[in-house]
Design brief:
Elements: H1 5-19, H2 64-72, H3 80-91, H4 109-120, H5 125-135
Helix pairs in contact: 1-3, 1-4, 1-5
Length: 140
């Protein structure tokens, strides 16, 4: 059975808050589905271990290998845009933007994930629970 948009958001938001760090390759700056120190990015946490292969790295979630692996892991193709947006939230952390958009850090994830949910009409209960467990307070 495929995950709903809410289930995807809940899994990613909870994971990112609990992990509290970007998933990167050992170089420390290249984002990775499966990174050093056992970390997983926003899309990587949705990929079941049984389906992960290293050649997924350096590919966008919309490429055939990655999207097929996500689908095999229970993420329907209809939700690739949602996964891609959550992946951008992870990957863009700490990046200096040349646009009007400000840079943000891992510490900003609770706020950014709350904003993400509000903009898409998603429930924030899982985010709030993860924030209380990690920080002793709610996201926003």
């Amino acid at each position: 059975m495929k995950m709903s948009a809410q289930q995807i958001y809940d899994k990613v938001a909870t994971h990112l808050i609990e992990q509290g760090a970007k998933s990167t390759l050992p170089n420390g700056w290249t984002c990775a589905y499966r990174g050093s120190k056992g970390r997983k990015c926003a899309a990587g946490v949705l990929i079941l271990d049984a389906f992960y292969v290293p050649n997924l790295e350096f590919n966008n979630v919309r490429t055939g290998d990655v999207s097929g692996t996500l689908e095999d892991s229970g993420v329907g193709l209809a939700h690739l845009g949602l996964v891609e947006a959550l992946q951008s939230l992870h990957d863009d952390t700490g990046v200096e933007f040349i646009t009007l958009r400000d840079s943000y850090e891992v510490e900003d994830w609770p706020y950014m994930l709350a904003l993400f949910a509000a903009e898409r009409g998603l429930n924030m209960d899982a985010l709030e629970a993860a924030c209380v467990a990690k920080f002793g307070k709610e996201a926003a």
